[in-house]
């Protein structure tokens, strides 16, 4: 494995891939901030810098590593050197793993540089925050109960009752995610949260209210959690961060956040999307390091995917296939948002929806990590999420892809040159 790593690393250095990658990273941090405008605030500039600059370095590092991976085995095969590699007393998996480690090392250099430059260029960043959603039942569980009631209702159309149960369940699950709770003037509503949050200092409510016709309107209300409270007085259709402070008197339940609407407008919110409790986490630098590790794990998966394609296809075909696969994986969630249930979709489009669901399922673990977005919004990247991302994207899936690449490398070189 080590000789293969050294050979691949020398190829990246001699081919100026590593030099160009680091130079592009440095230029992005120097030039892009002057081309992208922010809203004039320090927080807006920081978010712009991270999304535009750090996001750009992440994007072209991924593309560079993927393209290089697609050419490693294919170029050796084209130059009649792959057969010489596999007949040596070295396992084919070790050869593939060495090349993969070299690509990961090049990406790690780029991410280390972008992390250092981001830490230097972003002044006085705030600490990141833990985000806690309401402790509601899983959407699929609620949707199953709704489906049983919906299908048993005699008013339900027969076409819906005859539709595939999976399509009905998907429709109801999406409706549950977007379900609004309505709080009328003078009314109250409460949502459960994990117990113990009320004792954490610096507790903040993040909420987004809406009105029936999505019009901006003044609102007034009061949040209460255990012995903490916060007064709301603002317009709707805006994300509000409201610090909770010790109440002068009274104490609500320790595990339920209560909101009392004291204004004249009826307000709504989606508890699964529009309501969170925030608690202080660790400094920006620690979150930046975790974001870099998540980016490296995603890049490691794509490097293994490129090597797998390179073991079976020519370089141009492997590059084209990999870019199409990445494009489909990026577009699949948007397609499923536009057509979440498939009940009213033409039969000719159902194949595309099935492909989108399959690709989305395969890329779920790789796509659930959003390091750039989390870093830009001061969302703490939890260690559990980082460990899951690293285990799946940088260990399990690459091991499978590299094993498949090793099998193909053993079969392909002699048959392709005979």
Categorize the overall geometry: globular
> If helices are DSSP runs of H or I spanning 4 or more residues, what is the number of helices?
14
Strands of the widest sheet, in order across it, are: 3-9-5-6-8
Q: What is the chain-wise order of helices and strands?
A: HHHHHEHHHEEEEEEEEEEHHHHHH
Strand content: 5-15%
Short description:
By secondary structure, this protein is α+β, with helices and mostly antiparallel strands. Helix content is 59%, strand content 13%.
Q: Describe it for me?
A:
The protein has 418 residues and is α+β, with helices and mostly antiparallel strands. Helix content is 59%, strand content 13%. The strands form three sheets. Strands 3-9-5-6-8 form a five-stranded antiparallel beta sheet, with no helix packed on it. Strands 1-11-4-7 form a four-stranded antiparallel beta sheet, with no helix packed on it. Strand 5 and strand 6 form a beta hairpin.
Highlighted features:
59% helix; alpha+beta; single chain; four-stranded antiparallel beta sheet; 418 residues; disordered C terminus; five-stranded antiparallel beta sheet
């Amino acid at each position: 494995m080590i000789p293969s790593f050294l050979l691949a690393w020398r190829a990246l250095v001699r081919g100026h891939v590593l030099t160009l990658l680091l130079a592009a990273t440095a230029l992005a941090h120097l030039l892009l901030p002057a081309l992208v405008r922010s809203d004039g605030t320090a927080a807006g500039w920081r978010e712009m810098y991270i999304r535009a600059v750090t996001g750009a370095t992440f994007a072209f590092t991924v593309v560079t590593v993927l393209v290089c991976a697609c050419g490693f085995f294919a170029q050796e095969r084209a130059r009649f050197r792959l057969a010489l590699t596999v007949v040596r007393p070295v396992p084919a998996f070790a050869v593939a793993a060495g090349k993969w480690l070299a690509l990961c090392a090049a990406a790690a250099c780029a991410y280390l540089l972008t992390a250092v430059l981001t830490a230097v260029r972003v002044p006085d960043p705030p600490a990141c925050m833990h985000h806690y959603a309401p402790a509601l039942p899983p959407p699929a569980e609620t949707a199953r109960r709704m489906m049983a009631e919906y299908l048993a209702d005699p008013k339900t159309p027969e076409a819906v009752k005859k539709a595939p149960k999976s399509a009905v369940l998907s429709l109801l699950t999406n409706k549950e995610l977007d379900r609004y709770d309505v709080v009328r003037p003078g009314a109250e509503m409460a949502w459960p949260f994990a117990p113990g949050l009320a004792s954490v200092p610096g507790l903040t409510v993040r909420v987004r209210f809406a009105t029936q016709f999505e019009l901006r309107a003044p609102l007034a209300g009061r949040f209460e959690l255990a012995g903490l409270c916060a007064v709301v007085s603002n317009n709707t259709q805006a994300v509000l961060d409201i610090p909770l402070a010790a109440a002068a008197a009274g104490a609500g339940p320790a595990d339920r956040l209560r909101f009392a609407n004291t204004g004249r407008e009826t307000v709504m919110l989606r508890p699964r999307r529009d309501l969170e409790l925030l608690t202080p986490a660790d400094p920006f630098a620690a979150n930046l390091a975790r974001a870099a590790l998540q980016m490296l794990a995603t890049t490691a998966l794509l490097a293994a995917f490129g090597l797998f394609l390179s073991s079976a296809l020519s370089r141009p075909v492997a590059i084209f296939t990999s870019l199409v696969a990445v494009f489909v994986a990026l577009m699949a969630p948007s397609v499923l948002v536009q057509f979440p249930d498939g009940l009213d979709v033409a039969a000719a489009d159902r194949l595309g929806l099935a492909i989108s669901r399959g690709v989305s399922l395969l890329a779920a673990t790789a796509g659930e990590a959003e390091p750039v977005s989390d870093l830009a919004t001061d969302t703490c990247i939890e260690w559990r999420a980082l460990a899951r991302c690293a285990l799946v994207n940088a260990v399990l899936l690459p091991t499978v892809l590299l094993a498949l690449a090793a099998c193909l490398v053993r079969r392909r070189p002699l048959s392709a040159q005979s």
